[in-house]
Design brief:
Elements: E1 9-13, H1 20-32, E2 37-39, H2 49-61, E3 68-73, H3 75-86, E4 91-97, H4 109-124, H5 126-133, H6 139-152, H7 156-164, E5 181-186, H8 194-203, E6 207-212, H9 214-219, H10 222-237
Parallel strand pairs: 1-2, 1-3, 3-4, 4-5, 5-6
Length: about 240
């Protein structure tokens, strides 16, 4: 990734219960290597996380000259793709990291996890919910959850619940998106099945998928960002 793309900014949204700190750790350096400015806004609070993210992208687009590269992780990838479908006139491409489902959430693992976590947080509080959520998970992921969930605080349960019922882009709509899309997936991630990423890649007319692993991301967060950015670069040349 040596070519520089001046005057291009990327707005990247975090996943469910996550935050902009994680987004920066994943995408800041891979984008900077291309001369692309990363804009990583904090997620809207509570139940406004879905609708508020769309408004946030509109607001940022109104302050930046030229098209935006948009993207996100998990829920953030869904929301960025929805915006791109609506605003292709202002979109230079999409960075999709760990897409979690299409259409209705139904029994998607990420949606179920968010719903269960929302109930637990509402019932027991953030601290007690973290004890359950971080039990047996990799230390790096436990640390990310602990920081982000504590930052969400009393708004966490509403945010998780809104994410768990959000209707992601339908596979039938993805062919309408003509901008280049870079998709990154982890082959060892049961919450974000790699099969979902493959379905996105097959439905999108200009998409490239690159795979990595959660184990690699645990050692270096940038692995996920580099996979998405490199996939997007290749999709631009397709």
């Amino acid at each position: 990734m040596t070519s520089v793309m001046p005057q291009l900014a990327a707005v990247v949204l975090p996943g469910t219960g996550s935050d902009e700190v994680f987004v920066r750790s994943v995408f800041a350096r891979p984008l900077a290597a291309l001369g692309i400015e990363l804009i990583a806004p904090p997620p809207p609070r509570g139940a406004d996380v879905v609708a508020g993210s769309g408004r946030l992208l509109d607001e940022i687009a109104g302050t930046v000259e030229g098209p935006l590269l948009v993207g996100g992780i998990s829920l953030g990838a869904h929301l960025a793709t929805e915006w791109a479908l609506r605003r292709q006139d202002r979109c230079a491409g999409v960075l999709v990291a760990l897409p979690a489902w299409n259409g209705a959430a139904d029994a998607a693992p990420a949606a179920v996890a968010a719903s269960v976590s929302a109930d637990l947080v509402a019932r027991e509080g953030v601290a007690a919910a973290l004890e359950v959520a971080t039990a047996g998970v990799a230390p790096w992921l436990a640390a990310e959850l602990t920081r982000a969930w504590r930052r969400h605080g009393k708004e966490l349960a509403a945010s998780l619940r809104a994410a768990s019922v959000h209707r992601a882009p339908e596979l039938a709509r993805l062919p309408e998106l003509k901008v280049p899309v870079g998709i990154a997936a982890c082959t060892d991630d049961p919450v974000h099945p790699v099969a979902v990423a493959h379905a996105w890649a097959q439905a999108l007319p200009k998409a490239v998928l690159r795979e990595t692993t959660l184990a690699a991301v645990g050692a270096d967060r940038q692995v996920l960002g580099r996979a998405a950015v490199r996939a997007w670069l290749r999709a631009r040349r397709a």
